[in-house]
From TrEMBL:
GO molecular function: oxidoreductase activity
Protein name: FAD/NAD(P)-binding domain-containing protein
Domain FAD/NAD(P)-binding: 6-208
Domain of life, source organism: Bacteria
Amino acid sequence: MTTETDLLIVGAGPVGLAVAAEAAARGIAHLVVGKPMGFWTDHMPGGMLLRSGTDWHLDPGGEATIERYRDERGLTEDQINPLSLPFYLGYAEWFRARKGIAPVDAWVERLDAAAWSGGGFVATLVDGDTIAARRVVLALGMGPFAHVPPELAALVPPGRGAHTHDRVDFAPLRGERVLILGGRQSAFEWAALIREAGADHVHLSHRHASPAFAEADWSWVTPIVDRMVDDPGWYRRLPPVERQAVGRRLWAEGRLKVEPWLEDRIRRDGITVWPDTRLVACDTLPDGALAATIGTGTTLTVDRVIFATGYAVDLGRIGLLAKGNLTAGVATQDGYPVLDVRFRTTVPGLFLTSMAAGGSFGPFFGFTVSARASARVIGRALAAPSEAVGGRDRLWSG
Ligand SMILES: Cc1cc2nc3c(=O)[nH]c(=O)nc-3n(C[C@H](O)[C@H](O)[C@H](O)COP(=O)(O)OP(=O)(O)OC[C@H]3O[C@@H](n4cnc5c(N)ncnc54)[C@H](O)[C@@H]3O)c2cc1C
């Protein structure tokens, strides 16, 4: 079966939902494909707390905010902070209903340029159904980019290690000894949750000093990201030294701090933090346990290893592009797509946002704060007369 639409949005996470809301507000016929909030339901642990607060809502129109959702439930800021994953999922569900967004819960297997002369795209779903669209927005998030450094992966015996992306059900770890490699928020939060789920012992090893338990200050991020709506080229115009300064500031907030509400949950029995260490060997013992050596003279006996080693953008890992005929047309730089100031790739009519847009728009694209601004810039581009034929005019600078 083939469905036709003007605009296909692939990905029903925060960014895809924001783009859909913006498209609807502009009267652009569209179809969203993807499991609603699938990354959050399937790749984050149910007991997780968010680092971001109520101000990072999803509505480009500023109406369906997290604060409104909170108020409608008669809740106060103190009752909801820090936001829990279930609360945020409830908000996203409410947002979808309020905006009338009904994603097709399916996986896009491949995306191709249409064979017919009018241009456009054909998306093929896992079941073989196809969607013909004149324009496509890819809002695929960070899931495709889960990263384990190959040298670490090579040390851990097959089947005994998993990335945090793939290990969110902690019940099977009850009674086990777990080694987590990584030293940022996810590593610490997974450690707390795994121990609370009944693991016998959790070790946390990282190559650097441990981050501080301190509240991150994101207040400066929202205004500069919102500024992109009126001036989407500001980040790329920054001199390299200023760009690095922005990156360092975000790094200092996000990576040199872990949330203070984790402190008591980490400084407890059954969790040991090993700063300035690195895994150098991991061998299977006769009884099946693992002997994990994390530096001179320190070998831990564990049952399982978890890689809290983050995400690294590499467009080559996006399956729907790799399987289709568009790869050669999508220019990349250092693994990121080359995007103009309207989020357009080098393939006319193909837009790309979410984490992979970070190369052109800044590291904020690893966070939901980017959802509204990118939706508004993309919405404006989609509504522009030049985009009516797939978009040929280019605005690469600012
Ligand atoms: C542990 C963890 C905690 C985080 N905490 C926060 C936080 O507190 N605050 C914050 O702002 N950010 C947080 N983030 C970052 C946050 O996850 C991202 O900023 C956010 O998800 C980006 O939204 P998105 O819509 O771009 O991506 P996603 O939420 O990942 O949505 C993209 C969706 O596209 C789907 N998709 C991909 N390929 C296809 C395909 N071929 N066909 C169909 N669907 C497809 C994916 O399955 C996914 O569901 C956290 C990330 C992690 C890993």
